[in-house]
Design goal:
Elements (H helix, E strand, L loop, with lengths): L1 H24 L4 E2 L8 E2 L7 H4 L8 E6 L4 E4 L5 E4 L4 E2 L9 E9 L2 H7 L4 E2 L2 E15 L2 E2 L1 E2 L6 E5 L8 E8 L8 E11 L2 E4 L2 E7 L6 E8 L9 E5 L9 E7 L5 E3 L1 E3 L4 E3 L9 E9 L7 E9 L3 E5 L4 E3 L1 H10 L1
Parallel strand pairs: 18-25
Antiparallel strand pairs: 1-2, 3-7, 4-5, 5-12, 6-11, 7-9, 8-9, 9-10, 9-17, 12-16, 13-14, 13-17, 15-16, 19-20, 19-23, 21-22, 23-24, 24-26
């Protein structure tokens, strides 16, 4: 009888030990998310930054012109381009005949820039845009170019508020930043001054001796008229990381904005662009909280830039993708 009791006790102890070992192997980690619901399993949802706003990005506009006659192309947002007669060449420098197809995208405000990723960075500098666009000419799907000294003209509605001179820039692929997709390079040293066409409308008018199709921008550099700060950081709430959340910057008084990126070593968001001292800027952050399009949380703060600026966010508020688009357009 004693032997049976001893055997049963040993078996029971083995079962308890085995159960405790299995329990350790099946450990589940819990977090407290920003909605303060306890005991929620950790799940990280990846934010697809530019894809979120793809439907609201500026649209590609298409026009057809007669290559043998002079003709204006006028975009939906007011950009105008004059193609003189016989000004288009193929890549063999032969004048094309018949019709040509013109493709145009206009980026005229901060929402246009952020929704498309075509923002205003040049190296590590931010620019202020007076109006930018993408322009291509094609025939039968093959790209064309403009004849030098043909008299090509553009008129771009002024999208900033300064009477100061601007420069002309061309856009190249930004290999260092996938969110701010275009890196701007100054093309002409001739400064461009806005002209008052009517009491309520001014534009930048340029006639080119040489013009290259692609991304183009009328810009000026912050460093020409502002002191630049030394450091800028954004601290996010707990459980925000470099895959599920991001931030963007929008200047209050200038047509300028940019997407930010994470510094994982510091567990903070930053920008490699230099920022101007004393300027007012709005910082919008948002996080992907679930698998659906509208599973988002956001927060906005307005700040004045100091030499060493840190913006702290401690909580986020739920929003839909459409609401987030509305917040960006209103900033």
């Amino acid at each position: 009888m004693k032997n049976k009791f001893l055997i049963s006790a040993v078996i029971f102890c083995c079962m308890v030990f085995s159960f405790q070992a299995c329990k350790k192997d099946r450990t589940v980690v819990y977090i407290t998310p920003s909605n303060n619901t306890p005991n929620t399993p950790v799940v990280n949802f990846t934010v697809s930054i530019l894809s979120n706003f793809k439907k609201s990005a500026p649209v590609l506009q298409r026009f057809t012109i007669n290559a043998a006659t002079g003709q204006w192309v006028i975009g939906a947002k007011g950009c105008r381009f004059y193609f003189p007669a016989n000004s288009l060449l193929n890549m063999g420098n032969i004048a094309v005949t018949g019709t040509a197809d013109i493709e145009l995208i206009e980026y005229m405000n901060k929402a246009d820039m952020l929704f498309s990723g075509v923002t205003v960075g040049s190296g590590n500098q931010l620019l202020e845009s007076g109006g930018m666009f993408y322009l291509i000419a094609k025939q039968n799907g093959v790209e064309l170019k403009l004849k030098d000294n043909c008299g090509f003209q553009i008129k771009i509605p002024q999208t900033n508020n300064t009477p100061d001179p601007m420069d002309f820039w061309i856009g190249e692929n930004n290999v260092d930043d996938s969110l701010n997709k275009v890196d701007w390079v100054k093309k002409d040293t001739v400064q461009i001054v806005p002209k008052q066409d009517t009491a309520h409308f001014s534009s930048y008018n340029i006639q080119f001796n040489y013009f290259k199709f692609g991304y183009c921008n009328i810009d000026r550099e912050w460093s020409k008229f502002k002191t630049l700060i030394s450091k800028f950081r954004i601290k996010m709430p707990a459980n925000c990381n470099d895959t599920n959340s991001t931030a963007l910057l929008l200047f209050k008084n200038y047509n300028c904005c940019a997407w930010c990126s994470w510094l994982t070593a510091e567990k903070a968001i930053a920008t490699h662009y230099q920022l101007p001292l004393g300027e007012t800027m709005k910082v919008l952050v948002y996080k992907k909280t679930g698998p659906k399009e509208d599973d988002l949380e956001y927060a906005i703060k307005e700040i004045v830039l100091t030499d060493d600026t840190q913006v702290d966010f401690t909580s986020l508020v739920k929003c839909t993708n459409l609401e987030l688009e509305g917040f960006i357009k209103a900033l």
